[in-house]
Amino acid sequence: MQSSDVALDTMPKLLERNVAEFGDSPAYREKDLGIWQTWTWKEASSEVMNLAKGLIDLGTKEGDHVAVIGRNRPYLYWSLLAIQHIGAVPVPVYQDAVAEEMEYILTHCNATYAIVGDQEQVDKIYEISGSLKGFKDIVYVDPKGLRKYDKTKLHDFDSIIKRGENDAGQLTNQLESRIAKINGDTTCVLCYTSGTTGKSKGVVQTHKSIIGASMAAVEFDQFNNRDSILSYLPMAWVGDFMISVGLGMAAGGCINCPEGPDTMQPDLREIGPSFFFGPPPLWERLKTSVYIRIEDASPIKKMAFHYFMDTASKVGKDIMEKKPVRIWDRLKYSLGNLIIFGPLKNMLGMSNVRIAYTAGEAISSELFDFYRSLGINLKQLYGQTEASVFLTMQGNDEVYSDTVGKPLKGVELKIADSGEVLYRAPGTFKEYYKNPKATTETKDKDGWVATGDAGYMDDETGQLRIIDRAKDVGKLKSGALFAPKYVENKLKFFPNILEAVLFGDGKENCVAFLNIDLTAVGNWAERNNISYASYQELAANGEVGKILKEHVEAVNMDLAKDSMMSGCQIRRFLVLHKELDPDDGEITRTRKVKRSFVAEKYSDLVSALYSDKTSIATKTEVTYEDGRKGYLEATLGIVDATLYELQQQSENAA
């Protein structure tokens, strides 16, 4: 970035800069019906301007809240920009949100318009329309299924573009007048939090905060207009907004949209992006897919894989970080790269990745090291919705599995007496929408924001270490530290375990709920001729329980080597009869466990784990895909796991 970027404090100014400097470079790509379509910055800007004029003609006023709902598509990213250009406020909403969730957000922000992807989103809004006071019209991108709908308040996306194209000059004048009023303190976006502890809060972010945080990230990792990004994460998640809108606009790079969720992996291989961002669950799923393929491979391929992966685990990270490695090990790694790692990275779509990041929640050191040993430059960053994401990032030569990086330019960090991480940063939010009480509780008069995370600055690396959510960190009855997320991430490193929830605060020992990964365990069942008709039946299989017991005890053995975490070994566990589901309120749309909700909903199961029972009958309310409610009954087996003595104590005793 050049010094002139100091003046780039609004999205309209950034778009104008990108057209002037990178006009003929690709800005957006989308795979549609198997074919990649490309728009340059000049072409994208034309679409944004015509859409903005069309929205003015539709009646959108300055300050209006406009919901944007759908999968990742250039049309919806242009919608975000067009809304910003006319002085209105975009409100991204999760496309898989049930009607009740959508109703809460649209009523809370008093949305007046919505730009949606398809019929499904139109139907959801129609379902809740009686509760939406002041709501006016819907603009839709995909006309499929909408031919016979009443079009009075329903508008085709192309028709809104046409209004802008057919403008005789009046709409252009209005647009220019509105753009001139926008400054760094103008509201840029209203993002809703994931709501792990209650109702989602609307986070008001200004143009200055979004661009300030984005520019700091661009400068830190030298992102530029030649970088390419695959945009596949939910558009309502602040992580996608900051990558696909903030970072993409600040760097002038190319945003690539897959054809759909089911084609994300092959589309990733075709695009071969230089930058890739994924939360821990995504990296866990990719690793699981690798090991499923290996289990189905021939004995020779399987043996070669494990042999070279053993070499990679020993020297792969050192080679990537240019540390001294013996010639023989370097040769073995080169051979492994030729026949194993290279093809594996190509299969994952990571062959051209210059930088990969993970964030959103903690990632296990085992999973993190797995990717770095393959030569994938996976790093960690730390942030939150209220900070416009970017607070700390790891440099290429300062990558550690247990830290999240150093503060970016302009970011100040400090640790409160309680152990909570506090910050002041360029990306700090303005306020929580309609919630001054929560705003003052989170941000003090000096601008310090409480993250809700417990952590400390590591003296050896100078980087921030996050222990867990501050509210989740506790003590066992013995006084030993209870940090559930740390243990849960170790469990989820095993491909067979999709989700884990640990309990133990104030108790003698820890117990856990586990969710199996249906793909991985189903593959195992198929190879062992074990038939099953449902997730519930497979989860209840005794052989599955034995496998998971081995995983739990392996984690316990590992924890026994850590004097701080040894008390978090799991004494008993059960395999839940259903997957934790955002539709049931058990996890957020970004797959963060709502710990207190789960503990309350399954209090009978938690009590059984702390009793002498070997099984427990339960009845659980579930939400089906069509929104209907039902009940699931099951009898769950409770498994005892071996606890291990602290290794240091054993050695001293010897």
- Provide the spatial order of strands within the biggest beta sheet: 4-3-5-6-7
CATH topology of the largest domain: Rossmann fold
Mean pLDDT: 92
- Biggest sheet statistics: 5 strands, parallel
Low-confidence stretches: 1-6, 649-654
Describe the structure.
By secondary structure, the chain is α/β, with parallel strands linked by helices. The chain has 3 domains: 265 residues, 3-Layer(aba) Sandwich (Rossmann fold); 189 residues, Rossmann fold; 180 residues, ANL, C-terminal domain (GMP Synthetase, Chain A, domain 3, 2-Layer Sandwich), CATH 3.30.300. Helix content is 40%, strand content 21%. The chain has 22 helices and 28 strands. The strands form 7 sheets. Strands 4-3-5-6-7 form a 5-stranded parallel β-sheet, with helices on both faces. Strand 20 and strand 21 form a beta hairpin. The longest helix has 22 residues. The chain starts with 10 loop residues before the first helix and ends with a helix. The N terminus and C terminus are likely disordered.
